[in-house]
Predict the 3D structure of the following.
Amino acid sequence: MLAIKGIYAEYGIQRLNHGIGFGTAAIELLLPTFGESLGLKGKVATHWALNPHPALIPAIESGWVKQIHCFGSEVGMDDYIRARPDVFFTGSDGSLRSNRAFCQTAGLYACDMFIGSTLQIDLAGNSSTVTPERIPGFGGAPNMGSDAHGRRHASDAWLKAGRQASDADPKMARGRKLVVQVLETFGEKMVPAFVEQLSSVEFAQRMKLELVPVMIYGDDVTHVVTEEGIANLLICRSAEEREQAIRGVAGFTDVGRARDRKMVESLRDRGVIRRPEDLNIDPLNANRQLLAARSVKDLVGWSGGLYRPPGKFRNW
């Protein structure tokens, strides 16, 4: 809800890529409900560089999505894709025509926003999914979550982000891709997601790696979204402001509790940090009833029976 109202609506994001995770799946399922209540249909989330996520079916069927170009496919989505050539790129036989290289290029140069989940963020905004317990891959996030300096075509969202990020001469200003990281302040087993130093630093030292495995570098991250609010790092004008903005949405983690309360309130007054109440969002309204589909069976229903989920996802 915070992301939809505070970022999608704020910037008018139409061309985008979603990373994999519960946060982005929730956004996809909130578009036909919460997004509809904000009058955003046709104004945001219309063109996607994305695999055919089943969680996006309700938004497609509700008329939100105009076009999706895919990196690859998803198990069980073939029949649904064949039935929606108006949305997906398909061949004469109705099967999906995906292209990973072209989609990566579109995600890098054409999309105005990447939004995805992570497991750790440090005080500079560097993001990684490497933890002491897990060493997962990054997928397309390092590419999708980077700002392409070679881009020369404009969009309102890209230009607005660029203006926020720079105090340079407006005549020579360039745009900026939005790179948003969504996470809860505490992860599984109450492990804090905000840290002074990424676990990947120690991992790199132990494995004698030349490069620390960072998923998205902090200088590319523009927004951090948690249950505490949104930190807009574009508006920060110093490393100290950036650190305090991150601490300001880190909740009751050690990083959050070490914030400079006076500076965090000053950042909030400037709109760098926005709490749910600043966006007129009641956290009590954030419940499963607001999701367009609350089970895999619901997604099958939205698809008219065309989505055929793998057996392990069936509980009926």
